[in-house]
Structure formats: C-alpha cells, structure tokens
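Feature request disguised as a bug report, sorry. It would help if multi-protein outputs had a clear separator. Right now it looks like this:
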Amino acid sequence: MADYLFDRGVGRALFPDGVRIVKTRGRIRQVWLGDEILCSIRASDGFIVLNRKGAEFVHAALKPTRLRVVVSDDAAPFVARGKTVFAKHVVGADPEIRPAEEVLVVDSRDRLLASGKALLAGEEMIAFKIGKAVVVRRGFGGE
C-alpha cells in the first residue's frame, strides 16, 4: 500500500525490519518501530496517515519534489507548528499531487516541516492565490 500511495520502494523505507503492528478487530491500525509510531491506517479507507518518524522515512526515500509542497520561508515557522498551508504561501509543488493525497510540506531547503492532506492538485497549489492548499495533520517544529 505504501508503494501505491507514495512511490515504488517507499514501503521498504517506511516499514523496515522490526516494526510492530497493532491490530484491533483483525485490522491493522498502527505501525510502530521501537517506541515510536510510524503511521496509522485510516479505518474508513485503509490509507496510511504518517506520523513524524514515518514522514521522515518517506521524505528520505523520495527524490526531491516528489509529493512535496514547498512553502515560503515566511510561512515555514507557522506550518512547522501545525498551521494550514494556504495557496498564496506555496512556492513549489509536485505537479503529480492529487487532492486528498498525503503530502510532505517542506521549506525552500527541503527541510521537512509537516505532513498533511492535499486539498488541491499540485499545479493548482501554485496557480491559486487564495484558499487552502494543504490541511496539516502534524507539524514537526513546534515542540
């Protein structure tokens, strides 16, 4: 499923040897590595929702620009604290991003700021100057 959602080969990076799977009622709900949760599996559709460590693994496994939304340096601190990404702050995006896809939000130097759900296609994120582009699930810099 990870290869399908993110890209070929990401499954190996996201689920290394030693992961622990948590099931409820026979369905996979979470995947852990040691004492850190990598991801959750959304019950409604089986899609993968990344936590911080999982997002870091996916970020490292994907070539730059793939599934990335690049935000302006002005917006980066807010996004890292978990705030929504608005289209006017998007300076770059993978043109293959589709709405409802899990994406990585990065700054201009490809530092991982957050992960979230795309509301617009990649090309629309760049073209639009109003509205929400990504609903951030988890910001990775606001601790």
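(second protein starts here, but nothing in the output says so)
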Amino acid sequence: MHKILSLYVPELLASYERVGGLNNRDSHNMPSKRAVGQICEDLLQLLFPGFHDDDAVHHGSLADLTTERLARVVARLTDQVRKSVRIGDPKKPTGKTPPIIEQFCKALPEVRELLRTDIEAAFEGDPAALVREEIIVSYPFIEAIGIQRLAHRLHRLGAPFIPRMMTEWAHGRTGIDIHPGAEIGTHFFIDHGTGVVVGETCVIGNHVKLYHGVTLGARSFVKDGAGHIVKGGKRHPNVQDHVTIYPNSTILGGETVIGAHSTIGANVFLMQSVPPHSLVVYEETQLSIRSKLAKSQAEGFDWTI
C-alpha cells in the first residue's frame, strides 16, 4: 500500500507549492474547528445545566460543577482566541486575549437572561409546546440562538474567526444560519427553523417571530474601481418590534426596514421598507380549487372502486 501511495504523495506535495491559500504550513496559529465545536458543547452545558448532561445535576454539586465547566471553557477558548488574534504573526503576543475572555465570562449571565425570554416567546408562540423544558431539549432554534448570542459577544469584543466558527457549528446542527454580527433583541423565536438565514448587519427588535425558510439578506454588493466587493457596510434589513415573518419570505437590503407590529406573509419577496402595522401578502389571483369528485362523476368514473 505504501508503495502505491508513494506514487501520489510527490504530486500532492507539489500542489502544496503551486496552489496557495489552501494550506497552512509552518504555522500553528489557526483555530481548530473541532476545538471550537467542543467549546460550543461545553457552553451549552453552562447555559442549560442539566439539559445537556447524561446524568442529573444536583443542586449541592452545581457550584463545583459550574466552576469546573467554566474553567474548561476558559482554557479551551483562551487557546483558540489567542491563535485567532495572532494570525499573521503567531509568535507575537497581542495582549488582546485576556480582556476578551474576561468580558465574555462576565456576559454569560446576561445571555442566560436573554435566552429565558426566547424560551418564553417560544412557549407563548407555539401551541405545540406543552412545557418550557420541551423547548430547551428539542427545539433547534434554542441551540442556534444560544450559540449566536454568545458568538455575538465575542464578535463585539473583537475576537476574529471564532464567532463565525461557532455559528457555523450551530448552523450545521440546526439548519439555522445566524451571523454572529446580527443584533437580536429579547423574546426572539424561530418556529421550525430549517433554512433560516440572518445576515451580519441585521438589527432585529424585541418580540420578533420568524418561520422556516426566512431570509434576511443583502440586496446587492458595492464594488470598488477594480470590481472587487467592498467589505463592511450596512447590507441587511432591520426588523422592528413585534414583527412576524411567515415561511419562505425573503427580505433584502440594508435600507429596508420592517415597521413594528407588521406581518409579512408566506413567500413574500421584499426589497422595500414597510410602515408599522403593515400586512404584506401576495394576493391569490390565480389559485383554483375544484372538486375532483364532481369532475369524475361527469366523466362516469366511480371513485368507490
């Protein structure tokens, strides 16, 4: 086998020399996807103690268990953040990592308070939810928004790479793609969730409900004189308080604002703002519903056969 493989290895090594940008040689500073995934698992245990564990968590052991888990998260996250801030010069200390980790740890109770409002929104907004515990253990949006709210804190603190890696980990598990840069208020609920996309510069208010397949995306990209996309800038819509957006609707553009207390119906494609208290739907001008039974009787077909 080794003799056969030796025929291919030289050509593969040669491709490493020819094709740049796909390999990270002579460096150990790149964050690890596997490590970031484990950090996300550990963070979910911190956010929801007892809900991501094989065994029951007893009150008497909670303090020691929390200390142990937080220490594990801090150790792993410190290593990954240090790698990310040193990309380009892995041996040069930046001094950025300790304050990022400290501020992130301080934000954990605040994130839990926000998640409590998200769980409440799901319980009040979904008649199928019988108890709040069911939402925590079985609703994919809770994992997605929990990780996004944590990643958003790291994003604001200036940690590169790691926030996006975290939300992509959640995306892979839930089918819900929320950029860590998106600002999301309280009582946020995504019903079903599959296929939802929320862009980097979205600003979402309080008590907003999305259904599956909703996209809050960019309308177009500004390019420079050389034809390259200009990075940054406001590209994604704002959604104000108490808005509901039904399945498979697409709302695009950095200047697009969905006014408070509005409802966007299913399958709407929108690139303009709507005022508060709006109802946006497509009229069913071509919908036709006919009786198959009446048609078969006219043709002499017996449906009872």
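Even a blank line would do. Unrelated, but nice: The mean pLDDT is 89.
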